[in-house]
Amino acid sequence: xxxxxxxxxxxxxxxxGCLSGVGGAIDDVxxxxxxxxxxxxxxxxxxxxxxSMVVEIDHAPNRAPEASTVDLLIERLDEVCTKxxxxxxxxxxxxFDDLATWTxxxxxxxxxxxxxxxxxxxxxxxxxxxxxxxxxxxxxxxGVAVNAADIAIFGESIDASENILRRPxxxxxxxxxxxxxxxxxLGLVNAVYESPRDHEDKEHPHHSSNDASVMYWAVESSSLxxxxxxxxxxxxxxxxxxxLADLKxxxxxxxxxxxxx
Length: 261
Ligand SMILES: [Zn+2]
Prior knowledge:
The protein folds into two domains: 30 residues; 215 residues, Collagenase (Catalytic Domain). Helix content is 37%, strand content 14%. It contains eight helices and eight strands. It is globular, with a radius of gyration of 21 Å. The site of zinc ion has 4 residues, from helix 6.
């Protein structure tokens, strides 16, 4: 009996040794899972854990978002995400590294350096938008969504996309690009699910085939001036909204989620 106990004790010490090694690794070494765009879609759509939401916008001194962009982001998120504690925008003027061009990995790295708190912060869901000087390494790109909670919007490229008639204006373009990138964080279109509605543009994956949806591919492209001569879409269309409603209700299965109910 005593020897059995001794063996058990030694075994448990050995096991503890192993486990504490693993535990230490989880605490110290294993990086945070930052996910893919759409990876925190359910966390936004539902309120089981995250009852409120903050959109942190870190902008270069001359790149503050238009007030209309801030208002529109809150309005669009509020239309689809359940956040009884409210959705707010936290604006932070930020001195970024002096990068003339940004890669997706630059966006990932700088987003980690500048954010005030992680995306899954207690009962607060935090999405994060960078608005730096400079352009994306593909200059035709006006905005990108990387990871489950990180976006960058390139004001310099937006300004350059405004045509001489200012139709659409740089302000309108910024409005639509911001909603478009947030749409990617919501998983649109077919990024973390398979829609029963046929509305994904086969030529441009994860974009809507409807040019009246904010998720139309050209909305985040500098070629938008050649495609839209009047106003730009800044709303999710019926199919986008139906996808989000189905994800929320569980009628469509979501994949790659960093949080599930
Ligand atoms: Zn897009």
